[in-house]
Amino acid sequence: MADESWRVPSLVQELAATVQEPPSRYLIPEQDRRDGQLAGAEMPEPVPTIDLQRLLASDDDYADEEATKLRSALQSWGFFLVTEHGIESSLMDSLVAASREFFRKPLQEKQAYSNLIEGKHWQLEGYGNEQVYTQDQILDWCDRLHLRVEPEDERNMDRWPGHPESFRGLLHEYSQSCKRVKDGILRATARLLELDDDDGIIGQFGDRGSINARFNYYPACPRPDLVLGVSPHNDACVLTLLLADEHVGGLQFHRDGTWYCVPPVHGRPLLVNVGGSLEVR
Question: For residue 47, what is the DSSP state?
C-alpha cells in the first residue's frame, strides 16, 4: 500500500515549537515572494466603513447616506467595515479569549475535536489543518477550528470544544448576533439592486442556509517572510463576517493586480467580505 502520510501534516502549533526554519512544504515559491504578495502595499484609501444602525434606520436621510457608502464599497472593493452592528464588545472579547484558551490547551485535549476521522480521513468540521490534495501542495502556516453553526439541528456538537466551558454558549450567542448583521446587510443590498422584496437575496437561500464559524490560529514563525498563514483564495460563501485581531495585521485583499494590507482595526467593528455566491447572483 502506498505511503500517504503526506496527507496528514503536523499541526503547525506543534511544529513551530520545534523548528528553526519552516519545512519546505510551507515555503512560498521564489516567484511569488517577488511579486509583492507577502509584503503587500498600503491601502490607497481607508477601508470603507458602514454604520449599520444608520443603514437600517427608519430615517431616510440617514439610510440613504449609508446606502450610498455601501454601494461604493461593493463596487470598488467588495469589502467594508461595519460599525454600530449591535454586537456587544464584551461578547466579542470573550469569544476571542475563549478561542485563544482552546488553542493553548495541550495537543491531546485539542485532538479530541480533530477533523480527521480515524486519524487519516479529512473532514471539514473540527480542529486541525486544511485538506491536503497533492504532495507538492504549499501548506498554510495555520491551524484552524471549523464548525457549522446553522442550521442549529445540523451542528456536530462532538466537534465543538467543551473546554473552556464558556465556548459553546459564547459561539451560539455570537453566531445569532452575526446572523442579524448578515440579514441587515443583505436586505440593504437588495434595496440597492432594486429588487421587489428586501428579502430577495435572503429568500434565495431558504430558511436553512448554512453558516459556519472558523477560528484561525497563526503560530509565531521563525521565517514569516517565507510562508503564508492562509493561501490566496476567494470566499465561496455569500458573506464573510471577520472578527479580526485588534493589534496584529496580516489580512490582505487583491485588486487590479496588487495585494493591499488591511491595517488592524480597533473598537471591534466587523470586516465584511462579499463572497462568490453573492457576486454571481
Answer: P
Separation CA 162–CA 261 (nearest Å): 35
Give CA–CA dist 135/99, Å, rounded. Answer: 31
SS (H, E, C) 193-240: CCCCCCCCCHHHHHHHCCEEEEEEECCCCCCHHHCCCCCCCCCCCCEE
> Cis link prior to 151 (omega < 30° from 0)?
yes
Q: Could you give the CA distance from residue 70 to residue 72 in angstroms, rounded to a whole number? A: 5
| Chain length of the chain | 281
Return the sign of the alpha-carbon dihedral for residues 183, 186, 192, 193. negative
CA atoms within 13 A on the CB side of 145: 25
Amino acid present at 143: D
Q: What is the pLDDT along the chain (281 residues), one digit of tens a residue?
A: 467 788 899 999 999 999 999 999 999 988 777 655 567 889 999 999 999 999 999 888 889 999 999 999 999 999 999 999 999 999 999 999 999 999 999 999 999 999 999 888 999 999 999 999 999 999 999 999 999 999 999 999 999 999 999 999 999 999 999 999 999 999 999 999 888 777 788 888 877 889 999 999 999 999 998 999 999 999 989 999 999 999 988 899 989 888 899 999 999 999 999 998 887 55
Look at residues 246, 23, 229, 35 and name the one whose alpha carbon lies nearest to residue 129: 229
The burial of 24, by beta-carbon neighbours within 10 Å (0-12 exposed, 13-18 middle, 19 or more buried), is given as exposed
Give the DSSP letter string of 93-162.
Answer: HHHHHHHHHHHHS-HHHHGGGBSEETTTEE-SSEEEPPP--STTPPPPS-EEEEEEEESGGG--TTTS--
